[in-house]
Amino acid sequence: MVSKARIVVVEDEPAIRRGVSDALRITGYDVAEAADGHSGLIAATQPHVDLILLDISFPPDVANGGGVPWDGFLIMSWLRRLEEAKNIPIIVITGGEPEKYKERALAAGAVSFFHKPIEHEELLAVIHQTLGDRITAAPISA
Question: Which of 24, 80, 82, 83 has the most CB atoms around it within 10 Å of its CB?
């Protein structure tokens, strides 16, 4: 039996977080949402997480969740050190300057990089390719 893939969306902008999460749910993925780095780390280290969609930039009032000035690069660094999360694929999503962040994100271990606004069809294709046959979205009921 193929299990439903679980994806964690770490994004501070509510409209983007909801839009991406809704597109994933409609496709059949199980989605957990986090609005800041601290809650993102907690969500990403829960059992059965298969992929993480991670924003890079968080405003100062959001970035200090848990008292730590998180950004996506710090989150990736922590995740790569944690046994339960070190092998989870990360796809970076950011509204920041692509030329400033893309190379650094890929060097930090991201498997792919998307600049906002995100094309949901392209993102879903990359997610499916990243997860491969290992785990797929549950079939959508008619």
Answer: 24
Angle, in degrees to the nearest 10, between helices 14-27 and 120-131:
60
- Report pTM: 0.86
In a domain, 140, yes or no: no
pLDDT digits (tens, 9 = 90+) for 113-124: 999 988 999 999
What are the tokens at 128?
Answer: 């499916």
- CATH of residue 106: 3.40.50.2300
Which pLDDT band holds residue 1 (cuts at 50, 70, 90)? Answer: very low
Longest dimension (CA), the chain: 45
